[in-house]
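Quick review question:
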């Protein structure tokens, strides 16, 4: 079903998806990471644009708003492409390509002129991706929201409310975190996510453009003029039947 974010042992993240063996990986400059083992219903090709807006309300009522956009693509081979346009710093664009067959992750940006190619080994037999996520404090309720159309696609919505009682996280009063997820019924990808958390603000991620069909093959290649640096994600043992990957340069 949907992709879930993972936290790794170091504050360096690698955006990867759709690998045969699920593992946790750390080691690139991008800000997002997803479960390598999280699959989708098929490798149906598409290209989409997602707009993200984060609104933080200060104690005096003033608001801080940050927005950025991400272009994503997937081809029938299962390769994925991400192009993130940031407003801080202004003009920075970050790119990421993941190839589930070649087991490589490639990242670069429009400033450094360096492309990092990370080779990801297969997980050892009997190993799993990471320890179970600790239980979140508070009561969780779910509400089905039915169907709606987003960017020309049918989406099914769910609202999840986490009620955090007083004292659970140092709070003197109870509060709630509300998340809405709208998932494409055809492509099994998130089309709209709204997360309202009084601690961090309200974040909206919405697909504004969607095009079915094979994306431009050039998206999955490093542009000319970039220096390519090779790295290997080495297996690092964790407690129990778990394993993570540490990324090291190749010599």
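Suggested answer, residue by residue:
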């Amino acid at each position: 079903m949907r992709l879930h974010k993972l936290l790794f042992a170091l504050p360096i993240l690698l955006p990867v998806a759709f690998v045969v063996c699920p593992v946790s990986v750390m080691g690139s400059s991008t800000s997002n990471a997803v479960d390598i083992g999280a699959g989708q219903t098929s490798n149906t090709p598409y290209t989409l644009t997602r707009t993200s807006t984060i609104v933080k309300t200060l104690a005096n009522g003033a608001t801080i708003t940050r927005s950025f956009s991400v272009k994503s693509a997937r081809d029938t081979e299962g390769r994925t492409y991400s192009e993130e346009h940031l407003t801080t710093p202004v003009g920075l664009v970050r790119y990421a390509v993941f190839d589930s067959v070649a087991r490589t992750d490639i990242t670069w940006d429009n400033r450094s002129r360096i492309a990092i190619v990370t080779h990801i080994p297969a997980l050892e037999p009997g190993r799993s991706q990471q320890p179970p996520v600790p239980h979140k404090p508070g009561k969780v309720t779910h509400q089905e929201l039915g169907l709606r159309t987003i960017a020309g696609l049918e989406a099914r919505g769910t609202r999840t409310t986490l009620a955090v009682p007083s004292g659970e996280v140092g709070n003197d009063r109870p509060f709630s975190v509300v998340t809405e997820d709208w998932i494409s019924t055809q492509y099994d990808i998130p089309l709209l996510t709204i997360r309202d958390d009084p601690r961090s603000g309200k974040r909206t991620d919405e697909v504004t453009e969607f095009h079915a069909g094979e994306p431009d093959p050039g998206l999955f290649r490093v542009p000319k003029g970039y220096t390519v640096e090779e790295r290997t994600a080495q297996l690092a043992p964790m407690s129990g039947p778990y394993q993570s990957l540490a990324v090291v340069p190749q010599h």
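Why it works: Residues 1-41 have pLDDT under 50 and may be disordered. The two ends are 38 Å apart (CA to CA).
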